[in-house]
Amino acid sequence: MKKYLESSKYINWSNPEIKELAKLLSSGLPDKKSIAKNCFEWVRDNIRHSSDYKLNPVTCKASDVLIHKTGYCYAKSHLLAALLRANNIPAGLCYQRLSVEGDGAPYCLHGLNAVFLKNHGWYRV
Hints:
This protein is an alpha+beta fold. It has one domain (2-124): C8orf32 fold. Helix content is 41%, strand content 22%. It has 5 helices and 5 strands; from the N terminus they run ααβααβαβββ. It has a 3-stranded antiparallel sheet with strand order 3-4-5. A two-stranded parallel sheet has the order 1-2. Helix 2 packs antiparallel against helix 5.
């Protein structure tokens, strides 16, 4: 599980702003499941999807996503993983192929997260 808790170039949870937000999002919550849910909802509700809003810059590092409040799906997943890891919750990255038109090719990749909770195992969010 150690590698799913590490800080990295893109999931840079050791960044002071990420650590501060992670602490705020976990404050007063009783368990890791509640913390994971709160982190997920915060990213979902506060970080705009770059494509939907036609925003620049194109972010990738979790800290840049937090600063600019925008990111494509993969960048938002980097921030969520960083917030979870900062709260000692193992998190990884997943990708799935989606049909752009809903009926086959062309396809695009969608980035999301895998989260590990002791009583639930790994699940995708």
